[in-house]
Design brief:
globular; signal; mainly beta; about 260 residues; two-stranded antiparallel sheet; disordered N terminus; Transporter; Lipocalin
């Protein structure tokens, strides 16, 4: 099961999970996704940072394998020294410029393998992602280094409800002039199918990559439903519970299945 990591890395995410859950067992093929994501918060700084992301991503899947590639358009409006970090959230303390800057962000490549369901009904996915520094270094949208994430997702369906636990280990690059550390992140929640739609709620926690930042804790909610036979629409929102999170975030995604 995937969880939300859409900011800049278009990580993915629970809204992606909601879209995936519309697909029937045994389905395979290519899908394209785009949308808009807006968030605002101070992230332990004195000034607020506003971020707008328009992700463009492609995914291919079969019964056991899912491959993704995403390249977002990013606009940041905030104080100097704030860029998007390995977890897709603002990272203070990196060389940067104040005010508005925008452009294509970092390319994110991901993959997951679904293991055979255990006899007790537990589903397990093993995941990996690489974020490559493709953004313009003069615009200070990212750290300028490659970041890597590995993780596992556990799902236990109970009728129309599926509780889940997602854990990740992030390994950031080593940008000049700032100390970044390897971190853990986890999400716990549940999805529920009603008719042809699905809703998902979760509590998300992520350690801060920089000693200058705070750990992130937030609530996430999403609803996904078919718009046509080929298009899924997803609405989602987040509410920050700590200084390391955005005060709030909202987004909409459209996924076309080819």
């Amino acid at each position: 099961m995937k969880h939300l990591a859409i900011l800049a890395a278009c990580t993915a995410s629970a809204f992606a999970t909601a879209a995936d859950a519309q697909e029937t067992a045994g389905s395979s093929g290519l899908s394209l996704t785009t949308g808009l994501d807006y968030s605002s918060g101070s992230y332990s700084a004195d000034e607020k940072t506003e971020i707008l992301v328009a992700p463009f991503s492609a995914a291919w899947r079969n019964d056991t394998v899912r491959l993704t590639a995403s390249l977002p358009y990013v606009r940041i409006d905030g104080p100097a020294g704030v860029v998007l970090g390995p977890d897709g959230k603002p990272l203070p303390g990196v060389t940067g410029v104040a005010g508005k800057r925008s452009g294509l962000g970092d390319l994110s490549l991901g993959g997951s393998i679904t293991l055979p369901t255990l006899p007790i009904g537990l589903g397990i996915d093993l995941t990996g992602r690489a974020k490559l520094p493709t953004s313009d270094p003069d615009k200070h949208l990212g750290t300028g280094e490659a970041d890597f994430t590995v993780g596992a997702d556990f799902t236990y369906p109970i009728g129309p409800v599926a509780p889940f636990l997602s854990v990740n280990y992030r390994m950031p690059g080593d940008p000049e002039g700032v100390e970044l550390r390897n971190t853990y992140a986890a999400s716990v929640g549940a999805s529920m199918v009603f008719g042809r739609s699905i809703a998902i709620v979760s509590y998300d926690y992520a350690q801060a990559s920089s000693p200058l930042a705070k750990d992130a804790r937030e609530l996430f909610g999403a609803v996904s439903t078919p718009v046509t036979d080929k298009v899924n629409g997803t609405l989602y929102g987040t509410a920050g519970l700590s200084e390391g999170s955005a005060d709030y975030g909202v987004g909409v995604m459209l996924t076309l299945k080819l």
